[in-house]
Amino acid sequence: MANEARPCPCDIGHRIEYGGLGHEVQVEHIKAYLTKSPVDAGKAVIVIQDIFGWQLPNTRTIVPDFFVGQEPWHPSGDWSTFPEWLKTRDARRIDKEVDAVLKYLKQRCHAKKIGVVGFCWGGVAVHHVMMKYPEFRAGVSIYGIIKDSEDVYNLKNPTLFIFAENDAVIPLEQVSLLTQKLKENCKVEYQIKTFSGQTHGFVHRKREDCSPEDKPYIDEARRSLLEWLHKYV
Questions:
Q1: Domain ranges within the chain, ordered by starting residue
Q2: 120 annotated active-site
Q3: Which residues form the Dienelactone hydrolase domain (predicted)?
Q4: Arithmetic mean of pLDDT, 121-132
Q5: C-alpha to C-alpha distance for 182 and 67, rounded to whole angstroms
Q6: Is the model's pTM score more than 0.70?
Q7: How confident is the model at residue 55 (pLDDT cuts 50, 70, 90)?
Q8: Is 3.30.300.130 the CATH classification of the domain at 20-232?
């Protein structure tokens, strides 16, 4: 997901290949990739994948398969069929999976404070769970599509929203509406950050491949994500 002159809204961009520090586990009816800290701090962060699925190395921390075995979107797929594919993977119908992962983290990992981060499709999912689950101490929704026809403003705990100025999927008008509605209705801490000149997926970009112009924005977005989690989780 990169900043090409004519970016595909969900282009995969740079695929980061590295040896992960975690391993795959079975969490009830779904699989997950789990990375543990050498120090048991009683904290955990769930990462919700984008449309390219839980096995993309870019997003692996603790990444449950929220597609529950269904195929992720493939970069070479026919984009004319994407709307139909998306109908079978509703980011707001993941409660069963969230319940299973929360139970696993509490019982098996002894997590007492839990945060959640999501990219693209996962950003929509984060928005959903932050309205429903008070167990999440903090959430970070990264370029998650906003449904302005729904009541999406009653957040339970602090939530950071990260958007890109030149996102072909999320118009700035939607971001402005979210800002207005949260100001009117939200009772908890929140922040909305829109990054100048960036496109959908910019936070995923591989660090060493960043262009000089984009790198400060990408670094700031990643730093904001971590600072938000450190502050509230």
A1: 20-232
A2: yes
A3: 31-232
A4: 92
A5: 29
A6: yes
A7: low
A8: no
